[in-house]
Amino acid sequence: MRTQFPPSSAHGSPSPTDRRLSALVRHLGVGDHSASSMESQDPNPAISPSATAAFSGDSVFANIVQAPEDPILGVTVAYNKDPSPVKLNLGVGAYRTEEGKPLVLNVVRRAEQLIINDQSRVKEYLPITGMADFNKLSAKLIFGTDSPAIQENRIATVQCLSGTGSLRVGAEFLVKHYHNRTIYIPQPTWGNHPKVFTMAGLSVKSYRYYDPATRGLNFQGLLEDLGSAPSGAIVLLHACAHNPTGVDPTTEQWEHIRQLVRSKGLLPFFDSAYQGFASGSLDTDAQSVRMFVADGGECLAAQSYAKNMGLYGERVGALSIVCRTADVATRVESQLKLVIRPMYSNPPIHGASIVATIFKDRDMYTEWTIELKAMADRIISMRQQLFDALRARGTPGDWSHIVKQIGMFTFTGLNTEQVASMTKEYHIYMTSDGRISMAGLSSRTVPHLADAIHAAVTRVA
Ligand code: KET
């Protein structure tokens, strides 16, 4: 028998001081060195709290190598360390106001007030699948209010930790329950995609997407690569506002892709992180996904509210799996719960409550669409301003792609050395692939960026 901690006080129950002391003793791993100590009694000494590290004076983690910073989030780390007053962070895709400040949407503030004032709200755990209302409304947002798949209950939707968490849960589900474990991702794509899918256990291959020569879609390459992918393979598609290129297929090209995907029996997995940010319209930006659902076939979709509702740090998102029948969707959902429970048990309440509150109130929903459109429009106006500023400087090259590309980013075509020189000399921070977040730019900072690009293009090969 192990010694009982805390030892009983004279009155039978331990005093608060006893409790604190014994907690400290447990924490420090000292005390109880009697015959009944853990060391001598533990049935599994291999996992007992041995003191090897402490006694040898070296860390058990001594051989760990320093990991590199994340290629996107690491840009913010470097930016934060720079004392320059003119520094500009165009790395991470996060919206800034004309004043360069993070924006909390007015409608989000309103919803939060309502939530805080509602005394009936408690902090109980949500179900493993999250908030039911939130899930239903999220499915409507991406698939459309009149989607037959929703009416026929053929979609399993679960609340997840923003877009990334939704992708990860979807990938883990596929590894466990889908017969093909290869996912094709566009080249290039969001830097975290290959990591999320590899960590989940999928094998990652790429398909051609972007043509640097035209700064547009390599449609032929895309069709060839997906055309030669093995039947059943998973295909990751950016629903809109492709990151990092800002290049999306046209509606006709999407239709072509849909036919190819369906004829080959590939499984589409949509990443929808920018619904509303590409065109300013939530419906227009969901067209690609809706085309694939309209044909009755199956697909997955990961949604994020980070950008379109500005809920970045609240980590609000959803994974939907569209199935052939309601019966399959029910079983899929039951298995999604088994993926989620050991991962993070259940998702957080606050962000999903904000989204659900806004969606349920017609007036608030309208306010959201107006605020969203204003963000999208500001980004579009930044594109024009940057383009005009480069033209005014006579910067060599054709910069029309700045106004042609859509979404949060411009894929400038600047190379790693040029980016490095812009950071060194102008304190402009961006990812080394030449991507700039247009959402981080303002009328005030456009001239500085244009000067930096001009210098980089004319001085650095
Ligand atoms: N998908 C895409 C295509 C994407 O660009 C992001 C974020 C996400 C998913 C995930 O977002 P979440 O915050 O998990 O909902 N992209 C920006 C931020 C980041 O890298 O984390 C970015 O590219 O800057």
Main traits of this protein?
461 residues; Aspartate Aminotransferase, domain 2; seven-stranded mixed β-sheet; binds ligand KET; NHTrfase_class1_PyrdxlP-BS; Asp_trans; EC 2.6.1.1; aminotransferase
What this model shows, in words?
This protein has 461 residues and is an alpha/beta fold. It has two domains: 73-104 and 365-459, Aspartate Aminotransferase, domain 1 (Alpha-Beta Complex), CATH 3.90.1150.10; 125-360, Aspartate Aminotransferase, domain 2 (3-Layer(aba) Sandwich). The protein has 18 helices and 13 strands. It has helices at residues 16-28, 38-41, 52-56, 73-81, 106-117, 132-143, 148-151, 162-177, 193-200, 219-227, 251-264, 287-294, 326-344, 350-360, 362-393, 401-404, 416-426, 446-459, and strands at residues 88-89, 155-161, 182-187, 203-208, 210-211, 216-217, 234-238, 267-272, 299-304, 316-322, 409-411, 428-429, 435-437. Helix 12 links the parallel strand 8 and strand 9 (299-304). The radius of gyration is 26 Å and the shape is globular. The N and C termini lie far apart (74 Å). Bound molecules: ligand KET. Ligand KET is lined by residues 72, 92-93, 162-164, 190, 192, 238, 243, 271, 273, 304, 306, 312, 317. Ligand KET binds next to helix 8. Residues 34-51 have a biased composition (Polar residues). Its cofactor is pyridoxal 5'-phosphate. Keywords: Aminotransferase, Pyridoxal phosphate, Transferase. GO terms for molecular function: L-aspartate:2-oxoglutarate aminotransferase activity; pyridoxal phosphate binding. This is Aspartate aminotransferase.
Number of helices: 18
Reported CATH architecture of the largest domain: 3-Layer(aba) Sandwich
Structural class based on helices, strands and sheet pairing: alpha/beta
- Count of the separate structural domains: 2
CATH superfamily of the largest domain: Type I PLP-dependent aspartate aminotransferase-like (Major domain)
Helicity, as a percent range: 40-55%
Relative strand content: 5-15%
How many E strands? Answer: 13
Low-confidence stretches: 1-12, 27-46
Mean of pLDDT: 90
- Main β-sheet, spatial strand arrangement: 2-10-9-8-7-3-4
What oligomeric arrangement do these chains adopt?
A: single chain
Q: Report the C-alpha radius of gyration, rounded.
A: 26 Å
The kinds of small molecule bound in this structure are: ligand KET
Summarize the main sheet. 7 strands, mixed
The CATH class designation of the largest domain is Alpha Beta
Task: Give the termini distance in whole angstroms.
Answer: 74 Å
CATH fold field value of the largest domain = Aspartate Aminotransferase, domain 2
Q: Estimate the global geometry from the Cα principal axes.
A: globular
